[in-house]
Structure formats: C-alpha cells, structure tokens
C-alpha cells in the first residue's frame, strides 16, 4: 500500500462506515445486513419498506426481501399515504399489500392503522414534533430498507425520506410537506422548508430508536433508478443501470454515498445518470442530506467498504476501501475507486470530506 493510501485509510478511520456490494440478490441483502453487526436477539423487529403505488412501480419485491425479513422474524411496516391512491386508507392499503404479495412472506403492520403519536424533534425551525404511526412504539429494532431512486418532490428518495415521510402518518406526511403549516391539506410552496422538515423528522425517529434497548440500521438498494418514486403508479423507465446495495448505521453517510455514486457515475450509452442528476438538482434534493448533517443526525463523510472483495468484516480484516472523488468546483474524478493513486497534489472532496493530497 502506498503512503498516499495509508494516509487516506487513517483519515477515514473516524468516518462512519458504509458497506457496499454490487450484487443485488436476496443473499447479498442478508450479507450486507449482517455486516452491520446488529444484535436482534429478543428484539421486536420492524423492516420499513414502501409497498408501492402500483404493480408497475419499482418497490422492493417480496421475493427479494423475504430472506432478510424471515431471518429476523420481523414485521414489514408501512404507513398510509396522504394523497389518496391505492394506499390512502387502511382498507385500500391492505388490498394493495395483498395484491403485491407481501402477506405471503410476513405480517404487514400499517403503523397508523390505530392512530398516531408525536415524537419530539431537536430542530423546531419548521415542525414542532414528528407525527408517526402509533405502532412505531411496538418495536425495538428498525431496519430502514429503502429503494434509492428519484422523487418528483424531494429530488430523490433514500433512507432519510423513508424515515421521515415513510414513517409519518397521513397527517404527519402533510405536516412535513407543508413545512409545519398544516396537517390537513397539501402545501408545497416552501421547497427548502419541506426538505429541512424531512431531515428533522428523520432525526426524531433516529433518536427514538437510539434510546437504550432499541436500535436502528439503514440499507439503500440502488436498482431500477428511475427519476420517479415508488409512489408514482406509472414511473419513468430507468436510464441508469443498477449499482448495488449499500448499508450503514449512519443515514446521512449512507444517502450521501449513494448520491456520490449517482453524481460521479461515468455515463455511457444505455447507462445514463444525467436524468436522475437533473431531477435531484432541479429540486435541491441534496439539501436534505446537507441539512441533516447540520442537525447532527449523521456525517456526510464516510468510509466506503466493498464487501465483494472481503471474506468477512471484522476489526482484524483489512477493509477494501472505495473512494468517490470530486474537485472543489464539483467536477467528478473517481467513482467507487479502490485507490487514490494518480491524483495530483492538491485539495479534493473525497467521500464527502475536503482532503489534501500531498
């Protein structure tokens, strides 16, 4: 290992770890979860997914998540939507869940079926509390399992959106979308306020599960990378090819790593990240991650470890590091690279952090 790589390894040793595998299979989903070192013994476990607005959307399929859900003896959890559609009421949502095949692999708990509770928020700039389904309090361990993709209002959807909008009750969703101004009607004229409210709500759920006796972990699946969310019943076809699965205990680091893989992607014919990049930029989507970091929910810096090139994850194993590198003016240089060799001396943004290469 060169001196340059040694310096980088030391520098990133304090950053949150994000694990990566390019394999998108039920087996690799279990493998990357196990890499997080979670103790689920004796815990009531929830796996939060999106059940999708229609069978045509790109939600994570039951056959893909089945092994992980059943390994944990977990309930799948969801909340009703605020816009009507196929999941706007509990009765309609249960029909959709059955049609999508989720009942065949686990119990599905609609968390706001019997009401809602309020969680305290650390940041009261827009929202004064987070309104979530009351059944949230029935769980000790939450696996936030998100499909990373674009979104017509937030720019993109990853674990931060899945934890804020996704875990909010119907009225709680309206409260976040309106940046704290309404729990009964759509108000979407304050874009940054909406994004900042998502960050504050995600922090409320994170803090709830980081109390003694509880835990929460995060997984993003980067497949079917449409510019549209799974809440769109007729999403645009993906233009960018599948990337892989990433996981972390830090939701900010995880979403940031996924954004870096999109923005740093070397596009080619049939594999074009540009539409997704434009969707994210047009709605200032990266601000959610930036604001969440500012609130202290997590770090935009991360150590990216490739599980495909390791036989296991342990403190004794030498991690296979990956790097996403930009110039200070935002020009992409390296994507998921195994080495920083070849970079000229100077300042760069490496895995979300400004670094000097000597």
What does this structure look like?
The chain is of the alpha/beta class. The protein folds into 2 domains: 1-16 and 307-358, no CATH class; 26-300, Rossmann fold, CATH 3.40.50. Helix content is 30%, strand content 22%. The chain is built from 10 helices and 16 strands. Strands 1, 2, 3, 4, 7, 10, 11, 12, 13, 14, 15 and 16 form a 12-stranded mixed β-sheet that branches. A two-stranded antiparallel sheet has the order 5-6. Helix 7 (191-209) packs across helix 10 (286-295). It is globular and about 60 Å long.
Layout of secondary structure:
Layout: H1 3-12, E1 17-21, H2 26-35, E2 45-48, H3 62-71, E3 75-78, H4 90-100, E4 108-110, E5 116-120, E6 129-133, E7 141-147, E8 149-151, E9 155-157, H5 159-164, H6 170-177, H7 191-209, E10 215-222, E11 244-248, H8 251-263, H9 274-282, H10 286-295, E12 303-306, E13 321-326, E14 332-337, E15 346-350, E16 353-357
Parallel strand pairs: 1-12, 2-3, 2-7, 3-4, 7-10
Antiparallel strand pairs: 1-11, 5-6, 8-9, 10-11, 12-13, 13-14, 13-15, 15-16
What does the largest sheet look like?
A: 12 strands, mixed
Q: Report the helical percentage.
A: 25-40%
The count of domains is 2
Q: Structural class of the secondary structure composition?
A: alpha/beta
Shape: globular
The name of the CATH architecture of the largest domain is 3-Layer(aba) Sandwich
- Write down the overall mean pLDDT: 91
Pattern of helices and strands: HEHEHEHEEEEEEHHHEEHHHEEEEE
CATH class of the largest domain: Alpha Beta
User: Quick one: how many beta strands?
Assistant: 16
Radius of gyration: 19 Å
Unreliable stretches: 1-12, 311-318
CATH fold-level topology of the largest domain: Rossmann fold
Number of H/I helices: 10
Q: Kindly, what is the distance between the CA atoms of the first and last residues, rounded to a whole number of angstroms?
A: 16 Å
Please indicate the percent range of residues in DSSP E strands (runs of 2 or more): 15-25%
């Amino acid at each position: 290992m060169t001196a340059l790589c040694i310096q980088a390894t030391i520098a990133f040793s304090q950053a949150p770890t994000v694990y990566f595998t390019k394999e998108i299979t039920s087996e690799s989903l279990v493998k990357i979860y196990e890499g997080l070192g979670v103790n689920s013994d004796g815990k009531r476990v929830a796996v939060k997914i999106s059940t999708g607005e229609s069978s045509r959307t790109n939600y994570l399929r039951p056959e893909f998540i089945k092994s992980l859900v059943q390994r944990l003896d977990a309930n799948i959890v969801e909340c009703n939507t605020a816009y009507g559609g196929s999941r706007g009421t509990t009765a309609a949502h249960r029909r959709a869940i059955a049609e999508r095949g989720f009942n065949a692999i686990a119990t599905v708990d609609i968390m706001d079926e019997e009401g809602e509770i309020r969680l305290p928020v650390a940041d009261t700039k827009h929202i004064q509390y987070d309104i979530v389904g009351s059944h949230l309090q029935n769980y000790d361990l939450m696996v936030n399992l998100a499909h990373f993709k674009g979104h017509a209002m937030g720019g993109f959807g990853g674990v931060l959106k899945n934890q804020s909008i996704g875990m909010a009750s119907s009225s709680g969703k309206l409260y976040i979308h309106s940046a704290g101004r309404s729990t009964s009607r759509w108000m979407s004229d304050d874009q940054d306020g909406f994004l900042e409210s998502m960050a504050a709500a995600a922090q409320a759920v994170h803090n709830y599960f980081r109390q003694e006796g509880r835990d929460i972990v995060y997984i993003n699946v980067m497949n079917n990378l449409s510019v549209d969310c799974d809440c769109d019943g007729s999403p645009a076809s993906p233009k960018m090819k599948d990337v892989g699965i990433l996981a972390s205990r830090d939701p900010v680091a995880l979403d940031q790593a996924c954004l870096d893989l999109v923005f740093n992607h070397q596009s080619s014919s049939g594999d074009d990240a540009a539409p997704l990049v434009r969707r994210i930029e047009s709605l200032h989507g990266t601000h959610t991650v930036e604001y969440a970091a500012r609130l202290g929910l997590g770090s935009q810096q991360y150590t990216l470890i490739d599980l495909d090139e390791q036989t296991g994850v342990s403190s004794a194993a030498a991690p296979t590091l990956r790097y996403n590198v930009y110039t200070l003016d935002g020009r992409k240089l390296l994507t998921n690279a195994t080495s920083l060799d070849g970079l000229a001396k100077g300042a760069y943004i490496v895995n979300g952090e400004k670094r000097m290469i000597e």
